Fold:
Amino acid sequence: MTLLEANGVYKYFGSLYALRDVSLEVEPNRIFGLIGPNGSGKTTLMKVISGAHYPDKGTVRFNGTDITRLSPHQRSRLGVSIKFQITAVFEELCVYDNLLIAKQANQSSWKLLWSKSKRLLHDEILNVLEQFHLRERAYDRVSDLSHGEQQWLEISMATHDLIENLKFSQQQSLEMSMVTALKPRLLLLDEPTAGMSREERKTTGEILQLVKRSCAIVIVEHDLDFIKDICDQITVLNNGEVLDEGTPAQIESSEKVIEVYASRV
Structure:
């Protein structure tokens, strides 16, 4: 079953084609990598998938629904979550409160007014922070975190209910069902390891393998070693077109890909 499908996508800015006849398919519970030289169209394609750009030609379907002309908000409600390279967290708040805000986003005003949700969410938040290697930083201000830790926090905010569900799937209590927010089925990541240390990149890979158990992931990334290690499928773009696609092993041995990257050195 295909979760995300882009067919014959074109996007141009004036006379410049950023994307030309690009197609791809992403299956559930897979990590899909988008790579290519600078200016190859990777981020433009991500914006077309997320709704930040509408294609000039072609279609985008998600879980069988045509989302080509839906807004980012409408796509989010269907289960598409995006995290761009620049972190979007509340730096003056602590780690715990950032995740609490993310979890309360879909709560009713009545529940928030009577402060019931924080008590019900407390154990879940600590569980998510544990899974994302942030439990010991729960009450530290976000501005004091490393760049890598801030990235983990934002990914946790985008996928928190998936991680919670992995641990509590056997507990069908009323309280759990009351606080469960919309779970993303597709996570879009734009260069998640940029600026990270080698150890942080390794931890990020472990986190994404955990997220993959309940959510497909599409990653734009320049770190080819990272992409090779975690992706199930890779599409290579060049000059706005699909150059090649396949498994990491197939891409690594592709003469077309080797030629393009060698010419950019």
